[in-house]
TrEMBL record:
Pathway: Amino-acid biosynthesis; L-threonine biosynthesis; L-threonine from L-aspartate: step 5/5. It catalyses: O-phospho-L-homoserine + H2O = L-threonine + phosphate. CDD domains: Thr-synth_1 (cd01563). This is threonine synthase. Homodimer. It is found in: Plastid, Chloroplast. GO terms for cellular component: chloroplast. Its cofactor is pyridoxal 5'-phosphate. Residues 147-454 form the Tryptophan synthase beta chain-like PALP domain. It comes from Mucuna pruriens. Catalyzes the gamma-elimination of phosphate from L-phosphohomoserine and the beta-addition of water to produce L-threonine. The modification N6-(pyridoxal phosphate)lysine is found at K185.
Length: 656
């Protein structure tokens, strides 16, 4: 039923839409934005967009499809309102903007205009994509735009990661995955689905939108189509994407086909289907998506106050994104916003690295490959659609291609996570490429470098669990951080904290005095008893421990006799066979007391005295030691008003 409804054709008209009227825009001041700032969900925003759209239609800006990298003498072009994916020769298409019209405005104008829209709620310019509308899809009505205010993603200063692992102080991570559906694909999908929305309103023959996907494209397509009320069809390779990636198109109501093939097989099938049915192709073969993705490059320049970084490293699978970044940087250079572009690095997984092999051959021969399984599943592509685009971009900016093995990308991901990030395996590929380029000296320690993070780490939690559980075959996982199973008692917890963590726990030299025959002044407090067996190790009757201080301003805070019975005759049962075990317990006890004052940054004096009454030794049975604990604390005046909690492992908790 779903398929029959889905493929039912819609009525359409062959009448072409009326072209917009053009007028000259003065470059002295930015285009006026709406004065009212409301939430984009407010219907008034939509109404306001309709009222303002008449003026926007008169803009001189336009764009069209042309054959990619065609001869300058070629006149082949198509309207963006046409449904076409290939040139007459079967090659790729590209979106070409009217650069002459855009150049009527200088670089300062464009910088000022784009900066003025950052953080605004005026529809649709609050989106990181649509804030550059004149450079993306200039002729679309604002009311036709389908947006989740994507873009404007965080440019994260990876200070600790850069210094600790790479010796770099100017390393940045562009978190494109912090977006509506958790990946950079939102940037392109808002443009494509908005254009489909426009075509359907023009009664063009589009009954739905379809894509082949390794996970992220399908999530973005299904979400934006659901927002627009447009049917979406998704071809996924069976058992090759994460559960989080699979659930997104299902939850958003897409028609999902799980196909027993890899991505390249799904891509071939969707091409054939869209050639036969009025389903709009949403893969990066459709160059409209790249218009949205290029805005991430412009955002990077904005976030650096229009200063150009030295390097930008982009994970690559189907290779549309590396070209999109190049195109964004190049437009900024051509229109005078910046005077140069960064060098690009395309990072591929070694299990799916046809571009890397092409690069290593000196660009002599490209050979598609059958990719092996990789944790970076979204770039597990052996025959990338945008290979020609990627090669053109890399050659034009003196770019580089690097690869990462499965072990390398997972280690890089774990290292990055340990410094506060939470990245996807694809970003791990890019970070490992940076490791290699730093080691070879290609990228210098002082180079400003941006690594593009393409998806949110929450989409790939299973791979992180497998790594930290050391459940990956033939992978040592040196940076694994598995949880520790600890008994539910204070002593066990303290033992783990002291021996298995890197916490800066303060350590002191303890003065320990063992007295087998207590002085007469103490005989009234304890009995002097020893073991009845010569072979047994005797326990000391008295242990004294002190932490010394040089602080002159101390006074006695509290002192008292603590015992398990609550009265003078009570005792505390402790299982132990040696003086060493009892001393360890005492060591824990004093540490906890000291920790209470640790943040005060002042010296304290803690005097602890334990009076021990060992029972007669019985062979084969553990000893039960009866003890009294006397605690005296000397500390500066501010501490007097504090409540001190004394914890003894395996015993009880007292408040002094």
């Amino acid at each position: 039923m779903a398929s029959s409804t889905l493929f039912q054709p819609l009525p359409f008209s062959l009448k072409n839409p009326k072209p917009p009227t053009l007028f000259t825009v003065r470059a002295q001041s930015p285009l006026a934005a709406s004065a009212k700032q409301r939430r984009p969900a407010d219907q008034n925003i939509r109404d306001e967009a309709r009222r303002n759209n008449a003026a926007q239609e008169r803009q001189m800006f336009s764009a069209k499809y042309v054959a990619f990298n065609a001869d300058p003498s070629s006149t082949e072009s198509y309207s963006l309102d046409e449904i076409v994916y290939r040139s007459q020769s079967g090659g790729l298409l590209d979106v070409e903007h009217d650069m002459a019209a855009l150049k009527r405005f200088d670089g300062e104008y464009w910088r000022s205009l784009f900066d003025s829209r950052v953080g605004k709620t005026t529809w649709p310019y609050g989106s990181g994509v649509w804030s550059k509308k004149e450079w993306v899809l200039p002729e679309i009505h604002d009311d036709d735009i389908i947006s989740a205010f994507e873009g404007n993603s965080n440019l994260f200063w990876a200070e600790r990661f850069g210094k600790q692992f790479l010796g770099m102080n100017d390393l940045w991570v562009k978190h494109c995955g912090i977006s509506h559906t958790g990946s950079f694909k939102d940037l392109g999908m808002t443009v494509l689905v908005s254009q489909v929305n426009r075509l359907r309103k023009m009664n063009r023959p589009v009954v739905g939108v379809g894509c082949a996907s390794t996970g992220d494209t399908s999530a973005a397509l299904s979400a934006y189509c659901a927002s627009a009320g447009i049917p979406s069809i998704v071809f996924l390779p069976a058992n090759r994407i994460s559960l989080a990636q699979l659930v997104q198109p299902i939850a958003n109501g897409a028609f999902v086909l799980s196909i027993d093939t890899d991505f390249d097989g799904c891509m071939q099938l969707i091409r054939e289907v869209t050639a036969e049915l009025p389903i709009y192709l949403a893969n990066s073969l459709n160059s409209l998506r790249l218009e949205g993705q290029k805005t991430a490059a412009i955002e990077i320049l904005q976030q650096f106050d229009w200063q150009v970084p030295d390097w930008v490293i982009v994970p690559g699978g189907n290779l549309g994104n590396i070209y999109a970044f190049y195109k964004g940087f190049k437009m900024c250079q051509d229109l005078g916003l910046v005077d140069k572009i960064p060098r690009l690095v395309c990072a591929q997984a070694a299990n799916a690295d046809p571009l890397y092999l092409y690069f290593k051959s000196g660009w002599k021969e490209f050979k598609p490959m059958r990719p092996s399984t990789t944790f970076a599943s979204a770039i597990q592509i052996g025959d990338p659609v945008s290979i020609d685009r990627a090669v053109h971009a890399l050659k034009s900016c003196n770019g580089i291609v690097e690869e990462a093995t499965e072990e390398e990308l997972m280690d890089a991901m774990a290292q990055a996570d340990s410094t506060g990030m939470f990245i996807c395996p694809h970003t791990g590929v890019a970070l490992n490429a940076l490791f290699k380029l730093r080691k070879s000296g290609v990228i210098q320690a002082t180079d400003r470098t941006v690594v593009v993070s393409t998806a949110h780490g929450l989409k790939f939690t299973q791979s992180k669990i497998d790594y930290h559980s050391r459940d990956i075959r033939d992978m040592p996982c040196p940076h694994a951080n598995p949880p520790m199973q600890v008994k539910a008692d204070f002593g066990s917890v303290m033992d783990v904290l002291k021996t298995r963590t890197n916490l800066p726990i303060p350590r002191y030299e303890f003065g320990l005095k063992c007295i087998h025959s207590p002085p007469s002044s103490l005989l009234g407090e304890t009995e002097s008893k020893t073991s009845s067996s010569k072979s047994a190790e005797p326990l000391p009757e008295l242990l004294m421990l002190s932490i010394l201080t040089k602080s002159p301003c101390t006074r006695n805070l509290h002192a008292g006799i603590l015992n398990g019975g609550g009265g003078g005759g009570g005792g505390i049962g402790i299982k132990g066979d040696s003086c060493q075990q009892l001393f360890i317990l005492l060591h824990y006890h004093v540490y906890v007391l000291d920790a209470l004052f640790f943040q005060l940054k002042s010296a304290v004096t803690i005097n602890v005295r334990i009076v021990v009454k060992p029972p007669p030794f019985v062979s084969g049975e553990p000893r039960r030691v009866l003890a009294e604990i006397r605690v005296g604390v000397e500390a500066p005046e501010p501490v007097i008003r504090r409540s001190i909690r004394i914890l003894v492992p395996g015993w009880r908790c007292w408040r002094v």
